[in-house]
Write a structure and sequence with these properties.
This protein is mainly α. α1 crosses α12. The C terminus is likely disordered. This is EamA domain-containing protein.
């Protein structure tokens, strides 16, 4: 298998595993756990996994004093994004929620235009309109009922929080912090939000059967560690832009599990709406410089020499 093929496969695995959030979260909801408890354990289990990755790569846990406050803010933004997304699963189909979340690169482009005067090109405007058309098609669910407004607001809060996080990292002192260390501390400080929301353990809901603990561990491993490692390696092989474009598999994976595992309906109208959103975001990523804001994994490791077959 050649290098590029490996890169595309790893990029696809990275995106697909990140789209597994609903697969592991919904059974926990059904068993009586709430989003706060699920995310508390997800962050709690993911932190030592990332810590071991830092040790394995010979990196330091040391922070500069000026990095602490920005990291706390970024951690709270990511935690808010996670919380809003996981709460939205209670109000709408997970496939629709994950597709709506995928508009965050468009929000990044808008933030860069409004706050940092970055040029907003005509193709970007057309892509935004295309995405809005797709959202319009998703306004009614598969059974014909109007989507829950609370669910829509929650997903938009999730997407906006994540977009602000991406811009904030790239426009602050954190832009020089290795992504592995950044992710470790973002999860560590984000955990504080869920610790407060579960009343420091007083209202924490715990999985009552052994196999549900497997779901909690899977949330920490698949959408976090495996997705992270595969993304890093994919960029080594094929670069940032193709890897970011393969991110379109994230909502598609959620749609697949929503339909196959959880019996959610998928009509032609919903399919067209999802494809319009995915196409719009993909074109924005492929046609501009926004990729540098979406993927920051080059700083993780020096570019390794890749042996090519003669």
């Amino acid at each position: 298998m050649n290098v590029k093929a490996k890169g595309y496969i790893l990029g696809a695995v990275a995106a697909a595993t990140y789209g597994m959030n609903p697969l592991f979260a919904l059974p926990l909801y059904k068993a009586g756990m709430n989003p706060d408890s699920v995310l508390f354990f997800r962050y709690l289990f993911a932190i030592p996994v990332l810590g071991m990755m830092i040790v394995a790569r010979g990196r330091s846990f040391k922070l500069k004093r000026k990095e602490v406050l920005p990291l706390i803010i970024m951690g709270l933004l990511v935690a808010l994004s996670s919380l809003a997304l996981f709460q939205s699963y209670n109000y709408m189909d997970v496939g629709i929620a994950s597709t709506l979340l995928f508009v965050y690169p468009i929000l990044v482009a808008l933030i860069m235009w409004i706050a940092f005067k970055e040029k907003l090109t005509l193709p970007t405007v057309l892509c935004i309109l295309l995405a809005l058309g797709g959202i319009g098609l998703l306004y009614k669910s598969g059974d014909g009922s109007t989507l829950n407004l609370t669910g829509i607001i929650l997903v938009m809060i999730s997407a906006l929080s994540y977009a602000i996080y991406i811009v904030g990292v790239n426009q602050s002192t954190l832009k020089n912090l290795a992504t592995l260390s950044l992710t470790f501390y973002v999860l560590l400080f984000g955990l504080v939000l869920f610790l407060v929301r579960v009343d420091f353990g007083q209202s924490l809901r715990v999985a009552e059967t052994w196999y549900l603990w497997g779901n909690l561990i899977a949330l920490a491993i698949f959408p976090t560690a495996i997705s992270f490692l595969c993304t890093t390696q994919a960029i080594q092989y094929i670069g940032s832009t193709p890897t970011a474009i393969l991110g379109a598999l994230e909502p598609l994976t959620a749609v697949f599990f929503g339909v196959v595992v959880f019996g959610e309906s998928l009509t032609l109208r919903l399919s067209c709406g999802m494809l319009m959103i995915i196409l719009a975001v993909t074109l924005i990523i492929a046609g501009g410089n926004i990729t540098i804001y979406l993927v920051r994994f080059r700083k993780l490791f020096p570019r390794l020499p890749i042996k090519r077959k003669k």
